[in-house]
Write a structure and sequence with these properties.
This protein is mainly β. Helix content is about 0%, strand content about 50%. Strands 2, 4, 5, 6, 9, 10 and 11 form a 7-stranded mixed β-sheet that branches. Strands 1-3-8-7 form a 4-stranded antiparallel β-sheet, with no helix packed on it. It starts with a strand and ends with a strand.
């Protein structure tokens, strides 16, 4: 499995970014996929996930109402639209896949990770 994340960058607070994760070696019809992030000095945390059927999404409380996850199974790609960004959203964002979105509470259970893309939000 290879996960190629892109779309990170620097933005001012209140701005928007869209992350993309192109997956290969895995069929997104049969796996959950989503995003984690890790800020400096902090543990990796789940941000958002969409399940294998695409009908159920999960968001961390800190991003609900601001971030939207979507997937294009035909393109084997998942997106994270991030709006109204805050300085506390600054982190490296990682794409990951697993059998279920329930794993997003336990990043230590995740086996397949992308390389990460840096998001920096300035005040």
């Amino acid at each position: 499995v290879q996960l190629q994340a892109s779309g990170g960058g620097s933005v001012q607070a209140g701005g928007s970014l869209r992350l993309s994760c192109a997956a290969s070696g895995v069929n997104l019809d049969y796996t959950a996929i989503g995003w984690f992030r890790q800020a400096p000095g902090k543990e990796r945390e789940g941000v958002s996930c969409v399940n294998k059927f695409g009908g159920m999404t999960w968001y961390a409380d800190s991003v609900k109402g601001r971030f939207t996850i979507s997937r294009d199974n035909g393109e084997n790609t998942v997106y994270l639209q991030m709006n109204t960004l805050k300085t506390e959203d600054t982190a490296i964002y990682y794409c990951a896949t697993d059998a279920s979105c329930s794993s997003w509470y336990y990043p230590e259970k995740i086996y397949d990770w992308g390389q990460g893309t840096l998001v920096t939000v300035s005040s």
